[in-house]
Write a structure and sequence with these properties.
This protein is α/β, with parallel strands linked by helices. Helices cover 44% and strands 19% of the residues. Strand 4, helix 5 and strand 5 (118-123) form a beta-alpha-beta unit. The longest helix is centred in the middle third of the chain and has 22 residues, at 139-160. It binds 6-O-phosphono-beta-D-fructofuranose.
Amino acid sequence: MKRIGVLTSGGDAPGMNAAINGIVDEARKHNIEVRGYLEGYAGLIANDYIELTPEVVKPHHHVGGTFIGTSRSEEFKKAEVQAGVAKQLKQDNVDGLVVIGGDGSYHGAYSLSKLGIQTIGIPGTIDNDIPLTELTLGFKTAVRNVVETVDIIMQSASSHKHLYCIEVMGRRAGDIARWTGRALDADGIIAEPGDFDVKRVKETIEKSQDMNKRYQLFIIAEGVMSAQEFKEVVERETGYPIHPLLLGHIQRGGNPVAEDRILGLDFGEHAVALLREGKTERCTAVIDNKVTDVSFEETFALIEK
Ligand code: F6P
């Protein structure tokens, strides 16, 4: 194996740069060149890449986002585009490809593997929504971001005895809401559809006020309902005034916490080891706290359920 490629795809996640660093470190040990395709699958389609060396990569190790860019490519879903990319990669003697992203990004990698390109995925998404891995890259940093931001907001809420509902990211998954709600000792956590019941919300507010708590906090997963919807229903049914807040992209930025840097390095090194062993259609994962790998198909089967 002489040359491999890497790209980041879908929403950026803190720790993606550390994973690229891990890939380059491991590849260099075995004299393998690494190409970084720019702006996700768009860079593969345009054959737009940079050579990734330690001098290029190391300054980004501790920084959030992805320095090689990312995108959500509709174009790459076309069979003829995938065939063109596979042909180009073969012509360029790119012997393997690592795709860092979420389940949508895995599907792109899987299609390329069916065209004879050795592919490995690394779960990079703040949502923690990839089956068969206990953690995805960026999740712990997103949790840190939410907790630290809401701590600040609650200082103001407490001064005014305000009642807040805060909508957090996660797409269809409720992990960010669950973890941050618990860490913040929120009065209510709405992480899955059955969790919202306006009568229960009213009781929770009253119990919290009876304890003389100076603010009330509800954390809501975006996949269940918006903060605005919560406000409308709760104000209409209970009369309590609600401050709705959409936390937004502050959750996705920021330098990765130590765990995401370490996980990035470990995932990156493991991905290259898998390529060197001739493995394909697999993605790195954490199971029982250890870095390992599972097949794309196993994860797809669980996502589709
Ligand atoms: O998948 C990561 C994520 O941040 C989700 O939590 C969120 O629903 C989505 O991406 C937001 O996407 P965009 O940045 O394109 O609005």
